[in-house]
């Protein structure tokens, strides 16, 4: 038996993790069948930032908010960044959107029509301009591009077109800016998606250069995929840019992180820590939609779930594990991981919060804050901003 990591070391490491919440999770969303509107949802991006600031105020570990353009289109992005700072948060990744326009029916940057490709590229470049104004580090690229039928378009030519758009966008990045390339197995394209997996994303990143990194959306894999293996591999290669955390039962369900499979989240966080990825170089983002549950508390819960998985992963006794692995003691090695996973870290996290002057129970603190009642009262009239509008 070894002593395992000290409580102080675990507590200190926990304070280094900063999560980023997605602006679109604060607004109405739904399935392709129905958007269920909730009272009090933000009508503007500023109101989304107000809500995100509440999440950070109660958890202490969600200081950044990702924007999605044009859902969060405003006239003055520098002023928006200032507004965020005044509320105690910062603007995070800028997410591009080349998937909600009739022109993109046959693809955006991979479209066979050069005029449409140019339009999509211009949007990507505009998003880098926005990053300059907001001070954002990361440009997040997800393409819905793909084909539904064999023969519909040439798979190889589409990769060439994709490469060209990525190259132009990459060359436009500033020294401190990065490009995060997101992959997704399928949907909305069903036969062949142009970036369906980490291998394709990674191949493009390798060609582009060190500022191009892969982002792992946990909902974007086939059932049973060993995501932590992908994480370990990308970290070894220095190409893990970050995560879009969410939970899935079936496809891209976008449920609360840690809700469907907390053990998977733990295994992912263990590989992050094992690979030295618990640093600001890894963007720990949420990408979720709260269709039937109250949004702000759902985001607080998700942040806490990621924190709990991180705490458990930090508790893994590395020395005991290495010894068991060295001696080929399969059961002992597995037990080291399971002991950490089965530890109730909630008291430890309550302590971490109290140490920084927060209520130990963020869910209760939010419930009792009166914020929900206030926004339901105040946010009447106007259109809700973004995705489900
Ligand atoms: C695509 C995706 C991508 C988008 C977001 C709204 O499924 O995960 O990250 O930007 O959803
Ligand atoms: Mn995503
Ligand atoms: Mn998704």
From TrEMBL:
<keyword id="KW-0464">Manganese</keyword>
<dbReference type="InterPro" id="IPR036237">
    <property type="entry name" value="Xyl_isomerase-like_sf"/>
</dbReference>
<keyword id="KW-0413">Isomerase</keyword>
<protein>
    <submittedName>
        <fullName>L-rhamnose isomerase</fullName>
        <ecNumber>5.3.1.14</ecNumber>
    </submittedName>
</protein>
<dbReference type="InterPro" id="IPR050337">
    <property type="entry name" value="L-rhamnose_isomerase"/>
</dbReference>
<dbReference type="GO" id="GO:0008740">
    <property type="term" value="F:L-rhamnose isomerase activity"/>
</dbReference>
<keyword id="KW-0479">Metal-binding</keyword>
<dbReference type="InterPro" id="IPR013457">
    <property type="entry name" value="Rhamnose_iso-rel"/>
</dbReference>
